[in-house]
């Protein structure tokens, strides 16, 4: 179930529909009764074989109006898709760390899919690619790293993830590289919950609130308690779309970006202006459009990708947002012994005649947090 105000430990849950606020959530949400102190980020001794918070699955019935994503989102046939395998890393005890970003000129380009608060998994994936060292500091020289958005909600430490990305940005710049991030729909949702709370907004299907939608979509009380002005300012300044080395990077697999400008600069400027105006209804409409998905699949998907590429440049779209397990129809089942069998994600998912690359490995559903160098290998 979604973790909200005053609830217990974080559990791994099925991804919710980001764009629907059910009737029971369309009421003011009561204030939080607990105010835990921020936790230090010093490295902690690791207990042997402790279960990760995300390994648990809820036993309770879903409340009215709460619909798990796997019941709602259509899937595509496996025959229409391609999944890029990723070679298993060598034993870290015997293999030297790879040297990344040590050559002249612009360094190699990497992208990171949706993180959703899973800080430990993020650090492990970055280490595996040689982008950070054992202490989590930038180790990739002039490499270029882009996060595709959705840093918070559902997982245990969204603010820790944002703090890490902000620190890596400074460390990478000092080393001659860079670490940058794009705006995801969950950044818009967290900003809205912080700024507007229970203020009613016109959702197009009745009255809703950012606070209710944030809780419904995995908002964590610990993140809200630790959210500071520096985090709000950083998220508010994120771009929505960028082109790098022939790859059009964006968060959501939607053509809604076209509604905000004819060029990449226009889109980013428009998004920043909306957030600066701070109008609840306008921000809600932006959030709602950025939750749209699956524009690049099935009939018409190839044309949708080409429309974006024609407007903004690039040869391929690289996105997060829609988990690869849903695109592949592998959302996990229970075997005869009652054990959950999570989806198998080996790497990025290439589809739409090779024009689209999906990077959300489904870490919130026992999938994999993806960090991938571009261009992809053949």
UniProtKB/TrEMBL annotation:
| Occurrences of domain Calcineurin-like phosphoesterase (ranges) | 108-324
Q: Gene3D superfamilies per the record?
A: 3.60.21.10
Q: Which Pfam families match?
A: Metallophos (PF00149)
Q: Where is the composition biased (Low complexity)?
A: 44-53
- UniProt cross-references to InterPro entries, sorted A to Z: Calcineurin-like_PHP (IPR004843), Metallo-depent_PP-like (IPR029052), Ser/Thr-sp_prot-phosphatase (IPR006186)
Which region is the signal sequence? Answer: none
Q: Which residues cross the membrane?
A: none
Could you tell me which residues belong to the region Disordered? 1-76
Please give the superkingdom of this protein's source: Bacteria
Query: Record's SUPFAM superfamilies?
Result: Metallo-dependent phosphatases (SSF56300)
What's the protein called, per UniProt? Answer: Metallophosphoesterase
**Organism (species):** Streptomyces tamarix
